[in-house]
Amino acid sequence: MATSSDLEQLLAAFRRFAVHGDTKATGKELNGKNWAKLCKDCKIIDGKNVTSTDVDIIFSKVKQRTARVITYEEFQRALDELAPKRFKGQSKEEALLSIHKLVENGEPTNIGVTKVAKTATVDRLTDTSRYTGSHKERFDESGRGKGREGREEIVENTGYVGAYKNAGTYDAKAKAEK
């Protein structure tokens, strides 16, 4: 049967996929989308014996009736059901070991994710040194946005008119006259 280190690696793979794409995830529950991603990235889905439909059906079968996620124990039951389907020529134990080997070192991939477009048009439109008028005020010398200071006129309650050059010199003059 599987050793404890194999089960630890299986749990680690489960947690990696459980937190993938969700900043609030704890790693204790796997949703249907990440379950399908695990099966695809770990090559459980081969298109012949196991398809994405099979994966979705098994997910629905092992989860609680009203739940939208599966726990680690339910995950193991799902692998138990997928193993003989994926590895038809092997015994149930051999198939289970083979499917564990597929999942153990699996990690979520980001292949096919949208990349940043790098064209001359995009470069020209995002070059802040060419901005004029009020848009120019929204960026500093390095091209980084100033945030709120660049979009709004921040009111200074100093008692002086805006852009007054000698602001803050009244107290010095008042002391000098005494």
UniProtKB/TrEMBL annotation:
It is found in: Cytoplasm, Cytoskeleton. GO terms for cellular component: microtubule. Keywords: Cytoplasm, Cytoskeleton, Microtubule. GO terms for biological process: microtubule bundle formation; microtubule polymerization; positive regulation of protein polymerization. One of its GO terms (molecular function) is tubulin binding. InterPro entries: EF-hand-dom_pair (IPR011992), TPP/p25 (IPR008907). It comes from the Eukaryota. Residues 134-154 are annotated as: Disordered. Belongs to the TPPP family. PANTHER family: P25 ALPHA-RELATED, TUBULIN POLYMERIZATION-PROMOTING PROTEIN FAMILY MEMBER 3. This is Tubulin polymerization-promoting protein family member 3. It comes from Nothobranchius furzeri (Turquoise killifish).
